[in-house]
Amino acid sequence: MKRALYIKFLITYLIIGIVGFVVISTIGSYLVEGKVEERISQQLYQEANNIAQSQGESYYTNQLTVRELYNSLTSLAEYQNAEIWLINRDGEILIDTESELDLDNPDMLSNFNPAVSTDKFYRVGTFYGHFSQKMLSVMVPVTSNMSTRGYLAIHYRMSDLYDERESMLGNVYLIGFVLYISSFLLLALFSSSVYNPLKKIITGANEYAAGNLEYHIPVETNDEMGYLASTLNYMSGELAKSEDYQHTFISNVSHDFRSPLTSIKGYTEAMLDGTIPVEMQEKYLNIILFETERLNKLTKGLLTLNNMDDKGRMLDITSFDINQVIKNTAATFEGICRTKKVIIELLFSDTALWVSADMSKIQQVLYNLIDNALKFSNKDSSIVVETTEKHGKVFVSVKDSGIGIPKESINKVWDRFYKIDTSRGKDRKGTGLGLAIVKDIINAHNQNINVISTEGVGTEFIFTLDKSTPNNSTTL
Ligand code: ATP
Ligand code: MG
Known about the structure:
Helices cover 52% and strands 18% of the residues. The protein is α+β, with helices and mostly antiparallel strands and 476 residues long. The protein has three domains: 4-180, Beta-Lactamase, CATH 3.30.450.220; 224-308, Signal transduction histidine kinase, dimerisation/phosphotransfer (DHp) domain (Helix Hairpins, Orthogonal Bundle), CATH 1.10.287; 314-467, Heat Shock Protein 90 (2-Layer Sandwich). Strands 7, 8, 9, 10, 11, 12 and 13 form a seven-stranded mixed sheet that branches. Strands 3-2-1-6-5-4 form a six-stranded antiparallel sheet. The longest helix has 57 residues, at 4-60. Adenosine-5'-triphosphate binds next to helix 8 and helix 9.
């Protein structure tokens, strides 16, 4: 199978990873930097104001010496990891916490112009060209007696700010990486629980399409995929069975037609070429007649089954007296009963018992069942046909005290062409279609048929019919 789906997933996954990384390192970095800058500048601005209002003012009102102010600012600068300046109005740096106090030779800021206002309360740059690296600087005036005496500036190295940004971004990268790996695990899980079974199912479907119905899809999980696979396995099993069934059916039909035809052909040729003398011909003509009757029966049986398959449920349902139909059917066996010395006993609870069914089909059911009962009965025995009524259903039973059916064959007697043991020699003429026809007819009526049998004791077939009222009756 093409790995298209899998590769698409992998590529999408990689693209998501790369895009995620690029987004974090550009937009993420920009946003984080903005936030850090804002936080630090606010903090420094507040600090600068505090210092200006307390120490700055104290210095200008001579409450603090310059040395004392210098020491205090140095420790504050260290604490803030920044550089603090006190600048006079002309731009002379009186105190710089990064260098020694030197009031005689103060550094001078060129072009110092505190009046130039910016839209922000801080600025990023080299602060009048004084620094060689970028600094974030805040500057506030130091006032005393309502007039500006100087300025207090705090400078924070941008490189430190970038370090902070990187450490924050590092966390984001870590979270992103963990999420990325977890999604990879999810992908792997998806692959093992959906993609792999799906692949096996598709392989199975291809095998079935190529005619290999024996193929078993190896997905045994207890989820939708497992359910789908077992449904397909079941479907292919059923298809294989019906294929097998068709195969055996055709070979049975061919076999059952071939044997009588072979013997008819053989005897006819023998008669024609004189191998069988004229005085013996009657015997062989009788055999030919017997085989022809068998062929006729076989053809009729197949036609009936075929009609049941085709028309299926197209039954001619009427209301009729089942007891009467049983009497009529039993009567057709009078001749055989006499020669076999078998009595057919009819046990009816009421004189008339009305049922709703296709009369001619039910007649055929009765005929086939009584025919079997007679065929497999011993001489001087009796067959009982009984009708009873229970809960709106009519039960018809055909019971003999014949040879019975072995346990292992009881479920197979309904199969087309099934005959228990042809060597029992009871019935050479039988086609093995009788009970298959019975079952089809009863099923078409949505009724049930059952068989109870003990080998050597006897067999009973019981089927149900719907009870009806005598209205709309068919006269027999
Ligand atoms: P046909 O009905 O075409 O004459 P058949 O009687 O052999 O052929 P079925 O009626 O389908 O075919 O019966 C199938 C097999 O079941 C029989 O060959 C027989 O072995 C067994 N069987 C059916 N009815 C009885 C019965 N009453 N007692 C013992 N065995 C039976
Ligand atoms: Mg039969």
